[in-house]
Amino acid sequence: MEYLNLYANCQLVKGANMSLLCDLQLRKFYHLPNDTAEVLTFLQQGSIDECIAHYGEDNREAITGYIDYVISKELGFIDNRLLTELIPLDLSWDRYSDITNVIIEYNNGIDYTGNFFRELFDLHIQGLEIRYYQPATLDNIRALLEVFNGTTLKYIKLVLPYDEAVTLPVWDRLVKQYPRVKSLLLHTAPVNKVEKVFDGSVSVACFSSSINSCLACGEIRTGYFTANMELFTESQHHNTCLNRKLSVDQHGYIRNCPSMRENFGHVGDTSLQEVLDNPAFHQYANIRKDEIAVCKDCEFRHVCTDCRAYIENPQDRYSKPLKCGYNPYTNTWDDWTEHPLKQTAIAAYGLEEIIK
Amino acid sequence: MPAVLTHQHHIFMSQQILILSQSHLEGATDAVCQWMNHLRIPHLRVNGEDFFHFQSLADLPDNASIATVWYRRKINSFPVKYSFKQPDFQTQYTIKRFLVDEFNGLHAYLFHTIDRPKWLNDPLSEDNLNKLHVLALARKYGIKTPFTEVVTTKAMIIQLLDTHPELIVKPLSECIFLEDASGGQYKMLTKTISPANLQAVPEQFFPSLVQEKINKKFEIRTVYLEGTCYSMAIFSQNNQRTKEDFRDYDTQRPNRTVPYQLPAELEQQLHQLMQSLGFRTGSIDLMVDMQGNYYFLEINPAGQFGMVSYPCNYFLEKKLAQALHKNIMHEEEIHQ
């Protein structure tokens, strides 16, 4: 008897019509029809022969085809039994900091060395995104990066307007001086392209559109999907957009994300503890994709970063991200900006300008 | 919550966890310390590099204030360099060895000044771990090991190849990395000896450890922590390049690493083995052959547990922080 053993870090996520086989180790995902997913699920309990007997001899070729596919992608292996000692992956999620990621919308009128920021970065923040909507000098950028020396911050992403005077070798020197900077996004660039500096370890992405406010944020695209252990496990228990996330907008107000309506005080006169003790700050943290309308039927739900700031029905916090054009019932991607049912929400958020 | 603060203050004043590590390239220590901060577990991290700033022996960590010690690493690199005006390779090496011995002389003093039972792993046992002894001990507890011999002649190899189709040769101590004057790098990894490459073996050679080659289905890396085994299977078999030693990393097609449950009897035997060595934590290498037999290979008391923790989502850094914390709480109970 032969059995297909699927590796525990290759997780099947079933949608309304299609499924996603997520390889959390190799960080890849495979879009499969639900029929295939059903066969793979059967094979987790029965032998290959039993599977063929169950679905009928007519399906032998299809079933062996699915198995060959799994083997060729190294998602599993054949053995003379199902190895029960290959135990399931524990999908629990935990982190050693109350805030894991921070977004700062830069404003040169704000003191980033103040108490609030010191307390914040003492929490062992892992990732920081700094968004410059307006041009900034290199000295100004360096001065800000200096603030994070001596913290346990692991990576910084810089979002800046493109400046033709700043060439790749200049960025190369900057990221070598501040090795926490792991990626750069240069908006309002002449062309879309991605280059690498620091021996290929830091990407410099040029983006032709302009990013001049947070209204541009919250798009759901396949290019943004990530199949990895961190996101997949967090997504089982928490909201992947806002759980343990904090932002400081360009006016110094503390929010879950710059695009969210609610603020929890100003960095000038608020302590971090006050924010963390405020239940409202955590109100979105546990909204899982499994509970969100439409998303709960979507096979991409655990590789998706979600968006709680712009949603189809602003009155219903469990409604689908507004800027997602995917329909899991028909498996088609449409332009969300043209969807007739989204126009009210687009107007409510004042997004007409940016989607022209 | 003032009650909690007072309690922490009390613990901090009396006892804390000592972490001996190094200042650079030690992500595991960083993660454990970050968990300790988050869980508010009082701890003191002393890196080997810090010894260079101590004014006197009085600056060494003090026994009375330490509840338990996690000895993770000694030092990454000495912050000072000494050389002759006209450096010579041989003397340079001799100086380096001497400085290492000098530093060890100071560092190992802690093994005596801090009560032995406070150490998570017995430091003297850890610093003097002997591979042959550990293999013999494993067999004593009923754990299967690959046939192992130390040989000095080709004749003996030929004789062993009669009963074992292939042998592997690996160091009795630890693998090293070598670099020659022109910058060429040599990685020491496990190699196979079979009738096919026997001609490369000299008639007589330095005493060398050989083992029967196990036709492996997969390898297992187990992190042992306070009686519990957290295991991971490593599938490298379908990839020829890493068939002999999974450290020969292949970034294109990485080995598949998944959570694994060892049989209860083997876990019990490993527990006895670790206890007999005075280890409450360590990483254990095992192998499973095509017939499903388990073979014990070796113990690394300061093994990289991050490489098991992350792929299996075991949160071992947090579990270690909590295990160390229990020792403080236990101490508190004794004193009260």
Automatic annotation (TrEMBL), chain A:
SUPFAM superfamilies the record matches: Radical SAM enzymes (SSF102114)
Domain 4Fe4S-binding SPASM: 242-299
Top-level lineage group: Bacteria
Classification via Pfam families: SPASM
Name under which the protein is recorded: SPASM domain peptide maturase of grasp-with-spasm system
Organism: Chitinophaga polysaccharea
From TrEMBL, chain B:
InterPro entries found in the cross-reference section: ATP-grasp, GRASP_w_spasm
Keyword match Membrane: no
SUPFAM superfamilies cross-referenced by the UniProt entry: Glutathione synthetase ATP-binding domain-like
Keyword annotations of the record: ATP-binding, Nucleotide-binding
GO molecular function terms noted in the UniProt entry: ATP binding; ligase activity, forming carbon-nitrogen bonds; metal ion binding
GO cellular component: cytoplasm
Domain ATP-grasp: 135-329
Annotated PANTHER family: BETA-CITRYLGLUTAMATE SYNTHASE B-RELATED, RIBOSOMAL PROTEIN S6 MODIFICATION PROTEIN
Name this polypeptide is given: ATP-GRASP peptide maturase of grasp-with-spasm system
Organism: Chitinophaga polysaccharea
Phylogenetic lineage: Bacteria, Pseudomonadati, Bacteroidota, Chitinophagia, Chitinophagales
